[in-house]
Design goal:
CATH topology: Metallo-beta-lactamase, Chain A
Strand content: 25-35%
CATH superfamily: Ribonuclease Z/Hydroxyacylglutathione hydrolase-like
Shape: globular
Radius of gyration: 17 Å
CATH class: Alpha Beta
Strand order of the largest sheet: 1-2-3-4-5-6
Largest sheet: 6 strands, mixed
Distance between the termini: 12 Å
Helix content: 10-25%
Number of domains: 1
Structural class: alpha/beta
Number of strands: 11
């Protein structure tokens, strides 16, 4: 099975660049899109992450980054409603990647067991979790816990890529153009193609925010080695790339 991937910006983060690129360019600020990814193909309606409830529609964001959409507007671009979604695959459970889960009352949610357990009892150093966002799905028994690499459906699988969070998983999608991987950690393309000042020391830059920096580095390296097409979770250029594959 071959799929097409559609990234749609459903939110924005304005952060120091080093929140993505560990210790590099902390003096620079970036407008970072938060994506919902619709995977087109097959007999299931599948999305990766649901993004934020606030799309941050401002003239400043449009000028600096591009257009953003509410979650419902994003689905409408593909003639879908939240009730149509069969599967949500979560890269991780930071709140800005799952705030719209409650819309999708029919969806089965796939997440790593380690990520789920950390969400239930997060360490104070990572305040980005809100178990209430998955409360309905948990109560309905719609959360599937994975333990490492796993196939979701034919042509779509996940690989375990911890570091940014304890249970990050990157989503592997077979496309006509090769193996595309949506990263399970917050990053931009520069993490995979470091500038000369960083490349002197390492072939990739780990995420700027981590619970385990060494695991984070190894996860970036794994994605770089295994992917034909790398899709970083917050890469600004993807806001203008409506279809991959």
């Amino acid at each position: 099975m071959r799929y097409k991937i559609h990234p749609v910006a459903v939110g924005v983060r304005i952060l120091p660049k080093c929140a993505m690129t560990y210790y590099f360019d902390c003096d620079k600020t970036m407008y970072l899109p938060v994506f919902m990814w619709y995977i087109e193909g097959g007999n299931k309606k599948i999305i990766v992450d649901t993004g934020t409830m606030d799309p941050f529609k401002t003239n400043e964001v449009r000028r600096e980054l591009g257009e953003t959409y509410t979650f419902v507007e994003a689905l409408e671009k593909f003639d879908l409603t939240p009730d149509d979604i069969d599967i949500i695959i979560h890269t991780h459970l930071h709140n800005d990647h799952c705030e719209n889960d409650f819309y999708c009352e029919n969806a089965t949610i796939y997440v790593q067991k380690k990520e789920y357990e950390f969400m239930l009892n997060p360490h104070p150093i990572d305040f980005r979790y809100d178990r209430d966002l998955l409360e309905d799905a948990i109560g309905d028994g719609r959360v599937v816990l994975l333990d490492g690499d796993a196939e979701i459906v034919d042509g779509i699988s996940v690989i375990f890529t911890p570091g940014h969070t304890p249970g990050g998983q990157s989503v592997v999608v077979e496309t006509a153009e090769g193996k595309a991987i949506i990263t399970g950690f917050c990053c931009i393309m520069e993490n995979f193609n470091p500038p000369p000042k960083a490349a002197r020391f390492m072939p990739v830059i780990p995420p700027g925010i981590n619970t385990d920096i060494i695991a984070g580095y190894d996860s970036v390296l794994r994605v770089k080695k295994e992917a034909d097409i790398i899709l970083p979770l917050h890469e600004p250029s993807l806001i203008k790339n409506e279809t991959i594959g």
